[in-house]
Amino acid sequence: MMKAKILIVEDEPAIQELLAFNVMQAGFHALRAEDADSAWRQIRDHAPDLILLDWMLPDTSGVVLAKQLRADAATRDIPIIMLTARGEERDKVLGLESGADDYITKPFSPRELMARIRAVLRRHVPQMPDETVAAGGLELSPSSHRVTAGGGAIELGPTEFRLLHFFMTHAERVYSRTQLLDQVWGTQVFVEERTVDVHIRRLRAAMEPLGMDGLIQTVRGSGYRFSAS
Ligand code: CA
């Protein structure tokens, strides 16, 4: 599993350092910015999975930046946790109205912050239920990460596994690349559409030895469909 990238937008060096330390300790990758300009640069270059955003920044305020992030299609799905020294209810409401997913008041314990980060990340990753699904002669079990067909097994990477799970639970319908990105990749909004084609190719290649690759059909000009017919 890839490490989630957390962008820390904080102008006070000591607090930025402390946050980065805790984020890395928790097993995430830490990106840093000290103002809105450098935050945008980091977002464009590294596509963070979550943003820790300080309320008080030297140029643009955290609230304004959160609103800008929400207004931009490329960044609107990145979860935001606002950080602030203020504790008043009015500010909390303002922060959440600006588009933040959660809010934490300084000083905070690293444990509380990490719990919030994990909760927000979980909410944004498309969930896969545990039940085994069957379609088109395939059986897929999320709990054991196994796909079988007849007597044979199909070995899949995590993305192909999610993709096949989505197809099997949404058979006979055509999905565009954008729809598949939303449904399977979730909030990793910077993934390009052609990434979908790459994973479809890998999925078909894995299914081919069992003669099942025809289940994934290309619908010209529209996208892809899982069909047993
Ligand atoms: Ca600050």
Structural class by sheet pairing and helices? alpha/beta
Q: How many angstroms does the end-to-end distance come to?
A: 34 Å
Strand order of the largest sheet: 2-1-3-4-5
- The geometry reads as elongated
Which CATH top level class of the largest domain fits? Answer: Alpha Beta
Portion of residues in helices? 40-55%
Low-confidence stretches: none
What number is the mean pLDDT? 87
Report on the biggest sheet. Answer: 5 strands, parallel
Q: Return the string of H and E elements.
A: EHEHEHEHEHEEEEHEHHEE
Number of strands: 12
Gyration radius over CA = 21 Å
Strand content: 15-25%
The unique ligands bound to this protein are: calcium ion
Counting structural domains, the number is 2
Number of helices: 8
Short descriptors:
229 residues; alpha/beta; Rossmann fold; Arc Repressor Mutant, subunit A; 2 domains; 5-stranded parallel sheet; 4-stranded antiparallel sheet; 8 helices; 12 strands; binds calcium ion
Layout of helices and strands, plus pairs?
Blueprint: E1 5-9, H1 13-25, E2 29-33, H2 36-46, E3 50-54, H3 62-71, E4 80-84, H4 89-97, E5 102-105, H5 110-124, E6 133-135, E7 138-141, E8 146-149, E9 152-154, H6 158-169, E10 174-175, H7 177-185, H8 194-207, E11 216-219, E12 223-226
Parallel strand pairs: 1-2, 1-3, 3-4, 4-5
Antiparallel strand pairs: 6-7, 7-8, 8-9, 10-12, 11-12
Calcium ion (CA) binds at residues 11-12, 54, 56-57.
